[in-house]
Here is the input.
Amino acid sequence: MNIKTDFIGEIVAEDFRTAAIFKKNGIDFCCKGGRTIEDACENKMLDANSIYAEIENLPQDNGGSIDFKSWPLDLLADYVEKTHHRYVYEKTPILQAFLDKLCKVHGGRHPELFEIKELFDASAQDLGAHLKKEELMLFPFIKNMVKAKIDGSAIPQPPFGTVENPVNMMKHEHTVEGERLRQIAELTNEYTPPADACNTYKVTFAMLQDFENDLHKHIHLENNILFPKAINLEKEFSVEH
Here is the structure.
């Protein structure tokens, strides 16, 4: 790993502990992972050398981080679906109910709650459709490629032409969701409840922060590991046949 020339997404894929460093400095490592640290720092007027130093000072033993890059693609697709997709399905209705309650009780004093609810509702609707596209179209094709590689057989021709087509669509939708959650973070003052916040208010903001953190990891695993590897695997078949 060369932290001065590798893209941010590649650095996080190599060692997920670096994600915390990028997040602390306000650097998007998932949707905008395709740039160097220097490029990201230039846009934000940050000192790249201080970030290099933080990364270099991480303990050498990798802190017991899971090496997702070494996982077979079918296992990684299953992990994303059973961990991160299920998280979205489980938490979304709870958060929508809490936000609805906050708007009714506190909306008069905190009108920003209505905008937060509108953004989250839009995210919930689009994410629901997005996850189904991955589960019904993209992930099965990735698993079929892995099976074909093991069996030494040809891959069936998918209806979407090449895997790059749905991958590009999913990455675009990731960017849209990342921007929505960035706006929610801004409207909540980085998930800081106001002085008059009740327990539901505090719990909702904490859950929104968790939701954003989980989505960042979810998008990272897809954009920076699963998708590039799927594209490379498909290319192997075109070379072989």
Summary: Residues 8-57 form one domain. The mean pLDDT is 92. The two ends are 33 Å apart (CA to CA).
